[in-house]
Design goal:
Elements lengths: L1 E4 L6 E2 L14 E4 L21 H4 L5 H21 L4 H8 E5 L1 E3 L2 E3 L2 H7 L2 H16 L4 E4 L6
Antiparallel strand pairs: 1-7, 2-3, 3-4, 5-6
Helix pairs in contact: 3-5
C-alpha cells in the first residue's frame, strides 16, 4: 500500500486578504509546520468551577455565596475567552517568517513585526485566513504497490 496526497498544502502561502493575491509581488506567509488536527491554540485553558478552592471551602455563609457567584461569573467569562484563537501563539508555533509584506514604511518579516506594525484588524484578518488554510485537511488516497516478479 502506498499513501498518496491528492492536494498537498504548500508551506508558502499567498493570502487573499486585502487583494494580496492580485498583487504583482504578493506577500507570503511561510509555514514551518501545519497544526495537528487537535491543536486549536486557545487564548487560555478552559476552567472548571468545581476545581476552585472557593467551592472546596464553601461554608454556606453570605460571604461564601457572594464569592461563589462572582467566581462562577468570572469563570464563565474566562471560558468564553478561552475558546478564542490565540493567533500570536499559532504564528509562533507554526509560521517561520513573512515575506514581501510592508505597512507604513515598515518591512515586516518576523512574527513580532507582523503583530507590532500591522493594525490589529489587518493582522487578525490575515492570521485568521492563514489559520483556516493551515487547518484544512489534506486528502489522501491509497495506491496499491505494484509487485514486480
Amino acid at each position: 500500500m502506498k499513501l498518496m496526497s491528492l492536494k498537498p498544502k504548500l508551506k508558502e502561502y499567498i493570502f487573499n486578504s486585502f487583494d494580496n493575491d492580485k498583487s504583482e509581488n504578493p506577500a507570503k506567509i511561510i509555514f514551518r509546520r501545519f497544526p495537528m488536527p487537535d491543536e486549536s491554540f486557545p487564548v487560555a485553558q478552559v476552567k472548571n468551577v468545581l476545581d476552585s478552592s472557593i467551592v472546596k471551602n464553601f461554608d454556606n455563609t453570605t460571604k461564601a455565596k457572594e464569592m461563589l457567584v462572582t467566581h462562577i461569573i468570572n469563570t464563565l467569562v474566562d471560558n468564553i475567552t478561552a475558546n478564542r484563537i490565540d493567533f500570536k501563539k499559532f504564528f509562533n508555533e507554526c509560521v517561520d517568517k513573512v515575506e514581501e509584506l510592508e505597512y507604513s514604511d515598515n518591512k515586516i518579516s518576523t512574527i513580532d513585526e507582523f503583530f507590532k506594525y500591522l493594525p490589529e484588524e489587518a493582522s487578525y484578518t490575515i492570521a485568521l485566513e492563514c489559520y483556516l488554510y493551515a487547518k484544512e485537511t489534506e486528502q489522501f488516497t491509497i495506491e496499491e504497490k505494484k509487485i514486480l516478479n
